Amino acid sequence: MPRLALGLQYDGAAFCGWQTQPNGGSVQDALERALREFAGVSLATTCAGRTDAGVHATYQVVHVDAPVERPQQAWIRGVNCYLPDSVAVRWAREVPDDFHARYSALERHYDYWIINEPVRSPLAANRAGWVFRPLDVPAMQSAAALLTGTHDFSSFRSAECQAKSPVRELRQFSVERRGACIRVSAVANAFLHHMVRNLVGSLVYVGLGRRDAGWVADVLAARDRARAAPTFPAAGLYLTRVEYDPSLDLPRPDETPPFFA
Hints:
The protein has helices spanning 27-39, 72-80, 137-147, 195-207, 215-222; strands at residues 3-10, 46-47, 56-65, 87-95, 107-115, 129-130, 149-152, 167-178, 181-188, 237-243. By secondary structure, it is α+β, with helices and mostly antiparallel strands. The longest helix is centred in the N-terminal third of the chain and has 13 residues, at 27-39.
């Protein structure tokens, strides 16, 4: 059976996360139902990153072992016929048998979008975080620079995190303002459970002036989740890219920002 990589986009507000649930309300459940309808048999799927409830994806990668030979375009259009409007297969590629959506990934990219203006925007509801007080972006940038690198991120992992090690390489961590929006971008070899949202929560504390930039280094060194800021809401988090060996020649992600940015 050929192995296929599928590129997905989804609005996480419509789902209880990626991973299959007894109530059938996850992205994985919706995708596997659609694959079963299209292929006529049940197919197991494996994703690059198990996003939480409310988290979105513009570039999620999934692999599946196809029971039938069909054109790649047929997998896109056929499966999409059975998917809800909140999720879509954007591309399909045949990949080597040893390709693994999760373990073959070299790094993952996430963006967190914050609306930073006095009045909330209903158009960005469930699609961005919101902070009504002005945020000091240069201070947030200084704090982000202190967190970049290979560290024990125990202070920024959830109590439910099942990772064997809290050590991760945060290769890029940046903050930029785009008008009323602020984008926090994070790139790492892998992330801990709630890691990005916990990092963003602490950057917001710095941006609000509750703590100075150097505070995040003390939090990092403490290796104690209780020392960091609360977890920021899921609404503004997007999985935007998963990097693989270039020889696979998988499609590049669409760099278009969300409609509200």
